[in-house]
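Give me structure tokens for this 117-residue protein.
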Amino acid sequence: MSHPLLSLIDWQTHPKWVVDAGDTIIEAGDAAETLFYLQQGVARTSDALIFPQGDIIMLAETLALEAHNQTVHACQPCHLVMIPLTQLKISLSAKNQVAWPMSRSIAADMIQRRVAG
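Here you go.
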């Protein structure tokens, strides 16, 4: 699986992180300032939201919130690429000035709908 954001960012130039099964990737309360691209493995939140290989972990939350509201654990060994959220902002804004604020707005709406049930 390949995430659409891969075409906007050179993921190969960013730090890599290998997390063992059962270890925490994101702790509730952590600042939402880094995107985690899951190159290999599977992760899940405390409320059983699953992130398969090729996904960006907690993308909507990272775009919309200042701090993560859930903890994410590795279900199996995970290979992650970490990228500062500011890099995504630069990449999106370079293509279209409204892309960044619109992306954040859509992400906030998604979270509100998820919370409302």
